[in-house]
Structure formats: structure tokens, C-alpha cells
Amino acid sequence: MEIGQLEAFIQVASLNSFSRAAEALYLTQPTVTARIQALERELGEELFERASRGVRLTDAGRAFWPYAQQVLQALKDGQAALEAARRATRGRLDLGVARVISIYVLPRILHEFRLRYPGVDVSVKTGRSHEILEMVLSGEVQLALTRTLAHPEIASRHLYDEEIVPVVYPGHTFARRCEASIFDIICEPLILYDAGSTYYVTITDLCREANILPNVVMNLDSVEATKKMVELGLGISFLPRNSLERELEAGTLVAIRVTEGTAVKLPTSVSYRTTKRMGAIASAFLQVVQDLFPWAEAPSRGVSHVTSHQ
Q1: Which end of the chain is more exposed for a tag (fewer CB within 10 A), N or C?
Q2: Where in the chain is the domain with CATH 3.40.190.10?
Q3: CATH topology of domain 3-87
Q4: pLDDT tens, 208-252?
Q5: Cα angle at 218 between 189 and 98, to 5 degrees?
């Protein structure tokens, strides 16, 4: 069964005429007749009978009529959906986002994206960066926002470097000086975020490089909970600066400068599979991200960077 046969059937049934149907379809009348006859042979039923004023549907034709309409309407809807997807005006975007990024960075990106493409539905799945990487590789998500991870099948566009800063409560000794040595910081009771996270690995690597055994008194899987514990004076922590804007402004937490000039930074990227064709919606999201982070440099490699500004 061909679409042209269904179109001929609908037109003849609507206009009660083979000749008028041919005009509407910009075809010759013999062509329309041939299509109807081919459809009748395939269905094993006559669909039209001659009447005094043209043709009319048989009982079989009337039974078939609504289904033919549904098929053609479904085709039109599909074509419209494809066109909308090409223009990124309607469709679905599946994102995988590292948990901290989803809380403190993603809202701004999605706000801008929805302003430009209000007809696109967005689904967000969160997890650790390595978990999100697996989602991209499996095709579960189209794009990922994570700490930069290297993989041969993944292309990453660098967005920004997340600075990880030591933070204390306002009454802490370090808060009065607003600085401390890395040795003194690591020797304090430490509250670390998520033992399986990139942050945790980065901080423990920093301690190892300094040949210091960290005094970890608490591990939490929530940045917000970690901030509350530090505010209560239960320890100090290293946290992403993007997560601290409200507390630093309110004065409930104080960011400490490391006297040695050591800065802990995590490259953050938007990533996608190189082996899969990117659709218009995903491309539109990438453009929004690029507009919001115009200063981004070339993609970085590795899990974390520890740089010195001495």
C-alpha cells in the first residue's frame, strides 16, 4: 500500500469524482484511476461505485475511510514534527548533568534555552561525572554537562574551570586572616563532599601531593548539607565557588585564600558522542551554552587541574 494510493482514495471520496480528484492532486485521471484500482486489488474490495452524480463509497470504502484519514494525518504530523526538530522549535532534549552543576549552573542555561526554544521539552538526569559519561556512550542522553573526562568516543567543549575553595565559618581563626597555608588547612577537621565525586578525588590528591594525611571528620553526599555543617563550626571544607554565592554574600561562610597560591580547579565541559549525528535541538543547546560561556577555551584533558600562582 502506497501513500499515493491513500491520497487518491481520500480525494476521490471527498470530491465524489475521479476527474476533480486528479485536478486536486495535479495528476491525470488515468493515474488516479490506476492508483484506486491498485488499492482495491490489495484490499480485495471495491471502494467506489458509480452514481448518477459521480462516484460514492461502497460499504467497504466507508469502513476504510477513517483509517485512511488517520494514516495520512499521522504522516503529516510526522513531517511537521521533523520540520520542527530541524528548526529546533519542538521536540525533546535529554541531558545528563553532574549533580553540583545541575544545581548551581544548569538553571541559568535552561532559563536561556527555554526563552529561545519554548516548544522543546527537556529531560535531565543527574549523577557523578563518570556515570553521566556512560549515559552519553549508551545513548541515554544526547549531551552531558560534567567535569571534563577523556574518552575516545566523546567530544568535549570546555566551558569554564570550577575553582574549589576552602571555606570556614565566620568565627574561625582563618576567617579573620582570610588566608591560611595549605598545611594548616588540611590539618583542620575536614568535611568532604561525596567520597566518590571528582571533588573528593581532587582534594585527597592534593593532600597526597603535600604528604599530609587529611583529618577527615565527616563525609557527606550533599553540597548544601556540607555548607550547613561548616556554618555550624563542625569543620572546614573545600567547595566549588559556584555553590557559595549566597553564603559568601550573606557572610555565613568565608572563602580562604591559600598562602602558597595553590588553586584547585576542575575543568567543566559539555560533551557528546562523536559517532552519533547531532540533531538540531542538541545543536541549538550547544549554541546557547556557547553564547553564555563565550570566554571558554579549547577542551581540557584529565579529571582535575591543580595549578600554582606563586
Answers
A1: C
A2: 91-160+267-308, 161-266
A3: Arc Repressor Mutant, subunit A (1.10.10)
A4: 877 888 888 998 988 999 999 999 999 999 999 999 999 999 999
A5: 115
User: What stretch of H or E contains 218?
Assistant: strand 216-220
Task: Return d(Cα 96, Cα 91) in angstroms, integer.
Answer: 17
Residue 141's nearest CA partner among 95, 92, 91, 85 is 95
Mean of pLDDT values over 194-216: 79
Query: Could you tell me the fold of the domain covering 91-160+267-308?
Result: D-Maltodextrin-Binding Protein; domain 2 (3.40.190)
* Residues contacting residue 74 through CB under 8 Å, at least 6 positions apart: none
For 116-141, write each residue's pLDDT tens digit: 888 889 999 999 888 999 999 988 99
* pLDDT score for 237: 93
The pLDDT, as a whole number, for residue 307 is: 36
Amino acid at 76: K
Other beta carbons within 10 angstroms of residue 105's beta carbon come to: 22
Q: Which residue has the cell 571533588?
A: 199
For the stretch 21-47, what's the b/e string if a residue is b when 16 or more beta carbons lie within 10 angstroms of its beta carbon?
A: bbebbebeeeebbebbeebbeeeeeeb
In angstroms, the CA 88 to CA 287 distance is 12
161-266 placed in CATH 3.40.190.10: yes
